[in-house]
Structure formats: C-alpha cells, structure tokens
Amino acid sequence: MAQFNITLSYEEILALLKEDKSEAFKAMLTNSLNGIMQAESTAQLGAEPYERSEERSGSRNGYRDRDLTTRIGTITLKVPKHRNGEPFKTLVFDNYCRSEAALIVTMAEMVVNGVSTRKVSKVMEMLCGKTYSKSTVSEACKVLDAQVKEFRERTLTGEYPFLILDATYFKVREQGRVISKAFMTALATDGEGHREIIGFCIAPNESKETWNDFVKSLNKRGLKGVRIVISDAHEGIRDAISRQLPGAAWQRCQFHFTRNILDKAPKKYQVGLANELHELWHSKTIEEARKRRDAIIAEYSDVAEAATSCLDEGFESAMTVMLLPDYLRKYYRTSNHIERLNKELKRRSKVIGIFPNEDSIMRIMGAVLIEMNEQFSGVRCVYSYKKLNELMSTDLPGRLIKIAEEQRRISVA
Questions:
Q1: Residues 27, 36: Cα–Cα separation, whole Å
Q2: Least CB-packed of 30, 163, 164, 195 within 10 Å?
Q3: Would you place residue 66 in the very low, low, confident or very high pLDDT band (cuts 50, 70, 90)?
Q4: Assigned domain for 1 exists
Q5: 2: in domain
Q6: Percentage of the chain surpassing pLDDT 90?
Q7: Lowest-pLDDT range of 1-5, 166-170, 405-409
Q8: Is the entire prediction scored with pTM above 0.85?
Q9: How far apart are CA 294 and CA 383, in angstroms?
Q10: What does the H/E/C string look like for 204-233?
Q11: 190 and 300 inside one domain
C-alpha cells in the first residue's frame, strides 16, 4: 500500500484556524486527499516525480480539477493524469460514489417521510455545502421505482381469509390540468394472522371496471382463500367481490354504514340514533341485533324514515361479522384499519400537494406502503394458525358461502 505523509507547521495550523474553521478543515482535508492521490500515482507509476527508474511504467501529465462533496462541504481536488501507461485510478472517488448513492437514498427517504422537495434541497445544502434543485431531489426519488415495482408485483403465497378494500384520492397534473385520481389499496390477513398490504394501484376513478381490474390483478398474483371482504358500500367494490371473489362474503363497514344512516336523519335526532346504533353493532348475538334493529326502526320511522329505511336495507350485509367469534368481530366489523393507512398516505402527501404525474404518486405512496407493511411484522398477530384452522374446520366456511350466494343474488336482482 502506498504511504504518504502530511506535514503542517505550527504557524500553518494557526493561520488556518484564524480563518473560518469550516474553511480550515476543508483546506486540511483537501491537502490530505491530494496527498493520498499523489501516493497512489507514485505506486501505480513505480516512481516518484522526476525519478529515473527502470520500474517506471508511465509518466505524469499534469492534473485535472474534480469536485468532491463531503460532510464539511464541497472541495476541489487535484487529480493526477498519466500518459504512456495505465490511466490513473484512485479509491478516493470510489468512496465518493458510495457516499453520493447514500445521499440520493437519504433524499428519497426524506420525501417519503413527508418532507417537501424544497425543504430537502435546503437541508442538503446546509449539510453538504452543495445546492440540490427540486428537480434533482425528484430525480433522486426514482431510485425507489425498482423497490416499489418488486413489492407491488410480488407473488402472493398462502391464503388470505380476510381482505379489506378501500381507496383514497390524490391530485395530479395531467395534460395541463389538475385532476383527482383514485389510489386503491388492499390490506389482508394471512393464514397465520399477519397483516399485509397485498396490493395497490392508481385508477382514473372508482368504478365497476376499475375495481374489477384491481381485484383481478390480485387474483393473477396468487390471491386465494378469501372468506370475507370488508369495505364500504361502493357499487364498484361490491361488483368486483361478486365477480372476482364469488365465494367470499361481504361485510359492510359498520362505521361507514352508521354515517350513511345518520346523513339521512334530521340533525336533532342524530346523537340519539348514533348511540342506539353503537349498541346495535355491539350486540352479542345476531338475534339480539335484529331485536335492536326492529326497536330502532319502530322508534324513529316517523321522524327519520329515510334513515330507518337505510338501516333496514343494509342491516344484514353489515352483520356478516356476527358469524365470527367475539375476538375477531371487533377487528373485522369496519374498514378502519385501511382507513388509517389512507390517513397516513394523506399526511405524507400533504407537503407535496399536487403530484407532477402518476409515476410520482406510485413511487412515493408505494414507498410509504412498503414502510408501513414492514411495521406490521412487529405487530401482534390478529389470530394464530391453530385458531384459524379450528375455526375453518367448523361450518363457518359453508355459512359464509351461503351468505355470498345470497348477496350475489340480491345484487343481480
């Protein structure tokens, strides 16, 4: 290995430190790295400058300037040039490439974590003494593309008995206009009780066609064993369940259903009705729930007819979860778990505001979902493999299939 020495006199050190300290350290680092490259040049040529030697393999041909961004700012180094032999090689800029790559990943991570590209640019300028434009930060985020694509297109293995579907919207620029696009997400629980984000996509809107396409793509990747699908009452989702997951029963989100009912009731009755609906959803048995439903309809039909009609029509689809044991009802009676994912997506996207294109939505929001999916690995399982097997060995699967068939028959009618 090439050896080199850097010598600074006492007076030189004092002179450096009398100036700006950051500039003093830049000067010392510049001298050090230039010394390293001089030593590397000597080792590669087999001779010192102006030394006559039979072992010499080439000669020096001056220097070229090259900037290096470091933690204390950008410095300019003198890189030796060779002729009549092998070109000069140095490890200094190998380390620089690794640092630059790490810097790019850091910028991407900052944007994923909800820091605006403008703020990222300012932080990087403070840390590195180098200006990074908003477009440079945006380009840096493209390192996420391969990771997001791999996660989004991975093969699904095993069974996913419980599936939650939902969508949120993001603003994006398209052909000189700002429009909203649907971001569809699927959150499932596997055979061992682990939660997993199994898919996401961007669509122009929520429709029967777009929801069918999304669920069909999940099937192609290996989705199987779905027993219950939890969602709001969007007709696109319901149609996709019926067509793409014919053996799965639909559980209407009780939270969204409550909101649908209350929206149809006069304001002065909403608080009382909300309390009674809360008790209804927490009934111990389906028989008790039906009695509470009948009581609510009898009490409010004269003053909130539209609300009670809504309750009556949608009641059974909101009570599919009653076939499950108590410890699972609380978890699967609403789509709140995927709503929390959407809320986090919205929080992270707030600093961006309007996305420049669809690719940027997929890139940033996909990276956020990867991060959140990793967090699920440290969360307690919803159930154990043993408990699920015991549950599926009962008449539950058959009863769920009957409910699915009845729901499909009603939707066709």
A1: 14
A2: 30
A3: confident
A4: no
A5: no
A6: 53
A7: 1-5
A8: no
A9: 33
A10: CCCCHHHHHHHHHHHHHCCCCCCCEEEECC
A11: yes
CA atoms of 231 and 199, how far apart (whole Å): 15
Nearest alpha-carbon partner for 112 in 373, 343, 348: 348
Q: Is residue 5 part of a domain?
A: no
The total number of residues shown for the chain amounts to 413
Alpha carbon separation from 215 to 317, 321, 342, 387 (Å, rounded): 20, 22, 18, 27
**Residues 242, 215 contacting (CB under 8 angstroms):** no
Q: Average the pLDDT over 379-406 and give the result.
A: 94
List the end-to-end C-alpha distance of the chain, in Å, as a whole number: 83
Max mean pLDDT range (116-130, 143-157, 278-292): 278-292
Lowest-confidence pick of 40-44, 75-79, 115-119, 335-339: 115-119
Q: Taking the mean position of all CA atoms in its chain, how far away is CA 62? A: 50
Considering the domain architecture, whether residues 127 and 153 belong to the same structural domain is answered as no
Is the pLDDT reported for residue 237 higher than 70?
yes
- Rounded-to-integer distance, Cα 411 and Cα 252, Å: 14
Side chain identity at 124, as an amino acid letter?
A: M
Residue span of the structural domain in which 46 resides = 10-90
Same domain, 117 and 254: no
Assign 127 a pLDDT band (cuts: 50, 70, 90): very low
Mean pLDDT lowest among 37-46, 147-156, 279-288:
37-46
Give the integer Cα–Cα distance in Å for 223 and 236.
19
Question: With contact defined as beta carbons under 8 Å apart, do 114 and 343 qualify?
Answer: no
What are the DSSP calls for 28-88, one per residue?
A: HHHHHHHHHHHHHHHHHHTS-TT---TT---EEEEEEEEEEEETTEEEEEEEEEEESSSPP
Whether 261 and 323 map to the same domain: the answer is yes
Tokens of residue 158, six digits: 């095993």
